[in-house]
Design brief:
The protein has six helices and no strands. By secondary structure, it is mostly helical. The protein has one domain. The protein is elongated and about 95 Å long. The protein starts with about 35 loop residues before the first helix and ends in a 19-residue tail after the last helix. InterPro entries: SCAMP (IPR007273). It holds the Pfam family SCAMP.
Amino acid sequence: MSRYTVFIIQHDDQPPLQQPAPNWPSCYPILYHDIEAEFTDENAKRLLRRSYFLCKLYIAMLIAHSCADIAIAISAMNVLNILAELIGSAIYLILLPIGDFFGRHLSLYVAFKHNNETGFRYYFIGEAIIILFGLVISTGFIFSGLKLFHLFRVRFYIPGIFIIIFIILAIMQTVLHIILTIQVYRVFKSRNYTLFPSVNTGPRGRRLN
């Protein structure tokens, strides 16, 4: 009767997890961003969806502002102003949305993903900048509203319409950012986080390591 020897080879080391491929932005992916796949907590997903929506709304607001400035320059038939507005619009349409996504939204993304207190703090800084920007725009419109009416008086209808769209988007975005900030802050406080890092000090105010 034949006998067989069976060797059992046991591998203790688990194969490394494969990192997901970058998928954002779709035109030239440089990082992985998938709210639905990376998060299971429904509240976190809901807040992140709103944050990402505000990134898109911010781009729409900037486009409306650029169209208004370019339309005014075209209506005035000033070639230098047209070129300046085109270059300026191209610059801030790239830099500002990138800053908003990486500085504000991605901070919140990382904060929820890794339960990172510092990520929440960076998010609040980004929100403060966006909200302040919206308040300045809204206040400026109140004090310079006559300028908008002047555009319609001189029949600059297209620039006037774009400015109205821009102001509506700016006000709407500011309100939505304030609401989102309050909702995120409730989560932040529920985890016993603080806005400012605590520093342990000794009897003479010296920091204890």
